[in-house]
Specification:
The structure holds two protein chains of two kinds.
Chain A lengths: L1 H23 L1 H4 L1 H23 L37 H37 L1 H16 L2 H11 L4 H12 L1 H15 L2 H8 L4 H37 L10 H10 L7 H27 L3 H4 L2
Chain B lengths: L3 E11 L4 E12 L4 E5 L6 H9 L6 E10 L2 E2 L5 H7 L4 E4 L3 H4 L6 H12 L4 H14 L16 H13 L5 E5 L7 H17 L3 E6 L2 H7 L2 E6 L2 E7 H6 L4 H9 L38 H5 L5 E2 L5 E3 L7 H8 L21 E13 L4 H5 L6 E13 L3 E5 L6 H8 L7 E6 L2 E2 H15 E4 L13 H12 L6 H11 L6 H4 L8 H13 L5 E5 L7 H18 L2 E6 L2 H7 L2 E6 L2 E7 H6 L4 H9 L39 H5 L7 E3 L2 E3 L26
Helix pairs in contact in B: 4-5, 5-6, 10-12, 16-17, 16-19, 17-19
The chains are: A mainly alpha, B alpha/beta.
Amino acid sequence: MSTESADSIRTRARSTVDWLVSHVQFVTTDTPALAGFTILVGFVFLGLFGPVIAPYDPIRASVQNAQGTILRLHPPTLRAPFGTTAYGKDVFSQFLAGARPTLIVGLVGGVATGGIGFLVGLVSGYFGGWVDETLMRLTDLTFSLPFMPMALLLLTFIQPNIWIITLIIAAFLWKMPARVIRSEVLSASERTFVKSARASGAGHLRTMFVHVAPNVLPIAFLYTAYGVAWSIAAQASLAFLGFGDPTTTSWGRMLRQVFASGSIRVAWWWVIPPALGIAAVTTSVFLVGRAYEEVINPEIDDQ
Amino acid sequence: MSLLEIEDLTVTYGTDDVRVHAVNGVSFDVEKGVNYGLAGESGSGKSTAAEAILGLLPGNGRVDGGSVRFKGQDLLELSAEERRDVLWEEIAYIPQSAMDALDPVMTCGAQIRQAIQKHRNVTDAKARERIRELFDIVGLDPDRINEYPHEFSGGMRQRVTIAMALALEPDLIVADEPTTGLDVVVQDKIIDQILDIQERIDSSLLLITHEIGVIAETCDELSILYGGTVMEQGSVDNVLVNPTHPYTMGLKNSFPEVEQLSDDPVAIPGSPPSLGAPPTGCVFADRCPFETEECTAETPPTVDLPNRNHRSACHHTEQAAQMRRDAADPETWGVDPSDEDASATSDEEILRVDDLQKWYTTSQPLLDQLRGEDPPKVKAVDGVSFSLHHSEILGVAGESGCGKSTLGETVAMLEEPTGGDIVFDGKSVEEYKRGGMKEFRRNAQIIFQDPFDSLNPRQTVRQLVTEPLRIHGIAEDRQEEKAAETLERVGLTPAEEFLDDYPHELSGGQRQRVAIARALVLDPDFLVCDEPASMLDVSLKVNLLNLLRDLADESDIGIIYISHDLASLSQVSDRLAIMYLGRIVELGETARIVDDPKHPYTSALLSAAPEKDPTSDRERVLLDGEPPDPVDIPNGCAFAPRCPEASAECRETEPTLDEAGDDAHSAACYFPVDGTSHDTGESGSLSSTTADD
């Protein structure tokens, strides 16, 4: 009996793994997606270990030459491979350390965006009626509020830190997946197997999570991925406008500093690393997302 | 020289792994002025062949060999532009789904005008005149040419596509399943129309269909395709009356017919071949009961039979007469003839429906809402009463939109009834609703029409079949065993092979069996089947009907079988209920309804079913008009506006179901049809209100 249940758990685990593998395999067949995936892997590595491998402390330590003078606004040299900032800090170290807040905001913001949007869309689309009405008017409300001015207003009164910023981003971005997933749920709920589940006595929770949810999950994944890209872009924008977390170095904040120092036209070595970092990561997310979109349907996948 | 000569046509499709050999060396000729039929089950390559002729193959399809000569010119060698000139001007095409074939944002007239002016330099006024003429030819009101497609019904839209095909008087019309998806009455009208047009303009028709009956009634010659190969071809009269190929025999014998109640239907065992490689030997060999070593070793050549227009690709044509005798016996095909005694229904009632109503409220203008007017109601089911016994199959028939599916879903409590009562197993559903809904759901199951949509694509067969057990907490330690048992009961053997498959890995017939297994795994007492066979090929359909019959006989299940196909209904049902616009107009024992229909609507339905025997000359009872708008049902008998018998009385008061007939067979008609003929012309005198048999 126990071996039997262990077996069934093992087969179930294996089928889950198979399912996941089959969903990630698309990366290997699509060149742009593979490139994007590689960049993302590098980005995650930087986010985890960037501050550790940075040669200097990104904020406190200044780069000095052999004579002991601080190098300010110096183009790339051997001591500072990406050059230095106007304050004599190492751009390379800032770039490495700046990946972590970007990763945190992107990941947490994206997952929260996808998660909230998924639940709202699922409940709204499945139950319909006044539940749908209430949730969708709430969605309309968030659609009608412009993101940037509202976020700036909020951050004027609240001391910004990375978690507050993530929260604000998720609170404004969930509307996109919610709308899309609701419409997917509406059409999935119309399908006969949902009726068939009800006919065999399944309750609302079971029907909603076992029958409807798996059939809209790929869309939710896709929008979570897009949420990651949107969050990174939003966080960079906020930081660039000076509403980032003042205690941490992020790519957006680096751009803010180069702009504030007035040397944005001169110090290309200071501008390119954070700008390219943001652009590469968001583009990669979209590349992978686009390839995933094509394999979203298992029936199409098999033909 | 023939109009169209297809020679050794070979078409393959590229997929990820293999090239599918969809058409393998098909040859046939269509003479001028001849109706030619291409028949076969799904996957036989009939549509692919037509697409190759028209140059409409999808991107991954490729013509690998052969020639398509139209008036001596090889169509395959034309450039895209040259082909455009030939298409429509000389070869017109009627696509399969009339619903989608018309552009919804253009009026029907404008679409036909576009087709005309593309090829001919004519003025708008001239084109307009021609369109009015065409509408007249296909039996549509010429004043409606400026209406949009959504203003027409499905059957009328199909006529518009036919009118469009006729616009330039082409020499050849290719029609791909022109009647599939239409109601039997509408189908009959379209067939009649096609024959009529055939007489008026002298064009040829290439008709592609899986319905042998339609071909038998419209075509002069045919080819029967299987696995991309011609099995048998020749004149319809020879091939269908005296088939020499076992596949034709099986196909013909499995095609259900209303009037053959006593015959056991035949089902061809197995499933169509996968065409991953070009076939060696006879493609039909592994399903053929007369197969010998020669069949698998060598592809049979298509041989001319002496002295008649008839060719057959079988090694055993010389034994055709003997094979025909054997093929009529279901046992040859591995079907056990059902035991007549077992089909006796028990007296115990499982379900009683009393005056059941399901009305839908439609939206109304704001002004009416403010005035406090009642919103208009669609009376999908309007006062239906019947009862169902254990091990009985009640067939519910009617055209689409008559409320039969709503009835099924309401009885299965998927829709809330708006009036009347359902008594299930001695308890009213009101009682079940007060906390016993789970018990009801356990004992009453429903099987849906579309096997491609009724299974969750993300669950394996194992999960699908055990789920009802998990929901109801039954047999917790042996759910898998129970699932396997049920799968084998519905003919998916061995069950282990299927348990880990996802629905998209199964064929249509297998999926429908999984859906049935899912319903049966709880051992229900009552089953609603909503058109379970309508999307299946004819031999699979017969398999399914036999399965349901066995279930009713052996497991004491009461079954409501809903379908528009009266022929298959009459084979499987003990009793029939004929519905029209939400009401049952006739109810009684199957044999009595089929032999002696009392309601004019029933007799019209019965007479509209096509027959597979080309020599029989059935009489058509063509109903006028369309069913009325269900929002605005006329007073009195709902059928009166279309009824040939209707009198003033019919239009004023509505007849009840006990108006004519007796306990075993009743009809809601003041003037029931008399006698055994289907001819409504001479019956219907006032004196025959109570017809006696």
